[in-house]
Amino acid sequence: MDSDATPRPAPLTVAEIEAVIEGFCQLQVNLIVSKHFLKQAAARGVTVTDAKRILTDGRIAGKQEWNDKFGDWTYGLRGTDVEGDELELRIGITPDRKAIVLVTVFEPN
Known about the structure:
Blueprint: H1 14-25, E1 30-33, H2 35-44, H3 48-57, E2 59-60, E3 65-67, E4 72-80, E5 86-93, E6 99-106
Parallel strand pairs: 1-6
Antiparallel strand pairs: 2-4, 3-4, 4-5, 5-6
C-alpha cells in the first residue's frame, strides 16, 4: 500500500447497519438514489418504492464489499419487491450515517 494512501475504514457491523436503516424508517436518515441504481432498476422493472420496501422489510445478506467508485463499503439486503420477486439491494451508508445510498439492485443467484 502506498504510504500516502488513506486506509479503508472498517465496515459497519450488522447492528450499525440496522441502526441506520431504523433511522431511515423514522425519517431521520435521507435516501440518495444513484444514477447506477436508476439504470439497473429500470432494466429490471424495479422502482424506488421496491427498494424502500427491501430497506424496511428485508434482511441484511451477503458480505460487505468495498466499492472504489463510491469510496466506501456497500452492504447487501435481500427482500421482495411489491410483486413478491426476490431482489438484492446494494446500499452504501455515508460516513456521517445521515444518508443511505441506493447503489444497485439485482436478482440474487
